[in-house]
Amino acid sequence: LLEEMPPWQGGGGMIKQVTFEKTSYQNLPYKFEAGTVNIGDAIGLGAAIDYLQKIGLNNVERHERNLTGYAMNALTAIPGLCLIGTASDKISVITFIVRNFSPEELAHHLDQAGIAVRIGHHCAQPTLERFGVTNTIRVSLGLYNTREEVDTLWQVLNKLAGQTRIF
């Protein structure tokens, strides 16, 4: 099947020979590898691996666990905020809703404060159905995040949760 399929894109190392009458392609899999290989991403991946090895994966995990615990403790104090998934060994991802606010509305306010989040069902619709919700807001924490950023998240959400909503 692959031998018979024409390449969807042309260029570079996939061509064996070109004439006015016919183009012939390299043997598989090179027939489908048009153009220059993705060297930039390969170099970037190597640099990222070097960076993580220098820091140490144990240190990355420790930081993310500590930050996740700090954030979970802070968020549980916000009235009307319901955490979705509270496993004791969770790391890096915190999903929640805030009573009387849509995830879209929360995301807008957080964006105004410079906080990036994801909203939606996060490809976990059966799990969300178990919790009786259709959409949530998700914060993903990483090595690059700080307690100060978690504090900003808490401040924005706590302020919103304390507002009286008139519809």
Quick description:
The chain contains five helices and six strands.
Write the layout of secondary structure elements.
Elements (H helix, E strand, L loop, with lengths): L14 E4 L4 E3 L13 H17 L1 H20 L4 E3 L9 E6 L4 H10 L5 E3 L4 H7 L4 E5 L6 H15 L6
Antiparallel strand pairs: 1-2, 3-4, 4-6, 5-6
- Briefly note the CATH topology name of the domain at 57-161: Aspartate Aminotransferase, domain 1
Rg over C-alpha atoms, rounded to the nearest angstrom: 24 Å
Mean pLDDT score: 92
Oligomer: single chain
- Give, in spatial order, the strands making up the sheet with the most strands: 3-4-6-5
Q: Which class do the helix and strand fractions yield?
A: alpha+beta
Uncertain runs:
none
Strand content: 5-15%
How many helical stretches?
5
| C-alpha end-to-end distance | 59 Å
Q: Give the SSE string.
A: EEHHEEHEHEH
What is the CATH level 1 assignment of the domain at 57-161?
Alpha Beta
Number of strands: 6
So, CATH architecture of the domain at 57-161? Alpha-Beta Complex
Shape: elongated
Main β-sheet description: 4 strands, antiparallel
Helicity level? 40-55%
> CATH homologous superfamily of the domain at 57-161?
Aspartate Aminotransferase, domain 1
